[in-house]
Amino acid sequence: MNRRRILFLSTSRGTKVEQQRNRDIFSRTTMIIVIYSLLLLCVVAQGQTFKPGKTTLIRYGGWLPSSKEAYDSFFSQLTDKVSDHRAKALSHIPAVAAFATAMNASSGSDPKMIDFFDQIFLQAAPQNEIKDFDSLLRSLDILLVQPPGFIVPRDPDGNPIGEPIGVPVYILFDLLSNTAAAYDLFRMPAFNVAMKELLDSWGTYLRTPDSTKTLTTLTGGWFSDYGLAYLQAEQRGDFNSTYISPNPEEMDRGFTSWDHFFTREFQPDARPVYSSSDPAIDAGIIVSACESAVLRLDHNVQLHDQFWLKGQKYSLYDMLDHNETATEAFIGGTVYQAFLSPADYHRWRSPVSGTIVNAVVVPGTYYAVLPDGGAEEGDPDFKPGSPYGALIRSQSWLTQSATRAIIYIQADNPKIGLVGFIAVGMVEVSTCSLAVGPGQRIEKGAELGSFHFGGSTHTLLFGPNTDITFNDDIVDPVTGALQVNTHIKVRSALAQAS
């Protein structure tokens, strides 16, 4: 009996009815695979090479508005507020004033920083709505004292469209970041120190009672019909049944701040740890560390490698912050990457049972991306050449450049060995909070830490001696194609080591 089929065709715990159903499915699937294999052998015999079909690389859901109407509405409202802010000659909030000072050469800062900003506004795509540094600062004055929310414009036929503005500061920087000047500026240490202080101030606000004003059933609220539809999409489950709400009957569900809502916990039975009744099989099961969507999978990775997205270098050495000992453990191994949307659960769970070898947070960049020529052919949301979303297209590169938490787990099962978990903070979601430390015992599915304030991405690393087979939800068992964009629940079966 093929263990892969037994393990992954059902997320049940093994009732007799379900076992019989799995045996029936197994028989049918085996026949399909045999027929497919015979056809494949015929193709190979004729001297042709089989290649799995190309899959879509990324999506932007929740990070950027998917409709032009929502995007235009966001900037229309923001522009009106900026104009009013300027007309009244209002002062900058303290955090924005400090950021402006840090960018100003007259304060002793590197004069190249403000020069780079001038170049950014010249180089940005014509669609950019932020035309100068003053407008950027005043936009930040507005966005950093309000929580993320929903926007409800109307489409050309007059129908309302509900879209989340989950990472508003990223929307502000999106087109600015996709420039050569931004690539230089946004990687400068001094810039990122100033940006961290700016975003920390927003993080402080998002822990205040005032930040609950978008936790409402009213239009623009996360518990409105539009908001709940978004939060419950992709089979995440009914909100009140899936998540712990302090007071489910209240308009704000009893959450005391935006951050309280964002780091919400699951109900005890909402995401059980996948297990098998067979101890030998159960010891080799690796579960999903994050509620996330499949992005990339690569085997036989090298110290310095080039794969993932076209033109992006991917380096284990840089990902692991130049830790030579750790890097050596994963050369020739496997890297799995998946990303989280603002609607997802943002706590990390251990993929295996074992011992924490080390856990560190590595400072990095916030809005640096690899500038590109725009969306490629086959992009799921944007037309070819569209300048929007370069950061999302740079996710593999961000694993070695952005702020990230790195956790090493020595699995109890020697067939799994050392596992590396990297939680990558993207844009304003760069607060990575560790819940574990070196020497700590951890059970499969237990909490490792959490993100704050938006969406993010993560990777799992396995050594070269780990014989790992991924779930059918990750890799199509017939074609071998990666099931990109498939939403994987945290603590569900991800892979099997044998």
From TrEMBL:
Domain L-tryptophan decarboxylase PsiD-like: 95-229
Recorded superkingdom: Eukaryota
GO CC entries: mitochondrion
Keywords: Decarboxylase, Lyase
Keyword Ribonucleoprotein in record: no
MF GO annotations: phosphatidylserine decarboxylase activity
UniProt-listed InterPro entries: PS_Dcarbxylase, PsiD-like
Protein name listed in UniProt: Phosphatidylserine decarboxylase
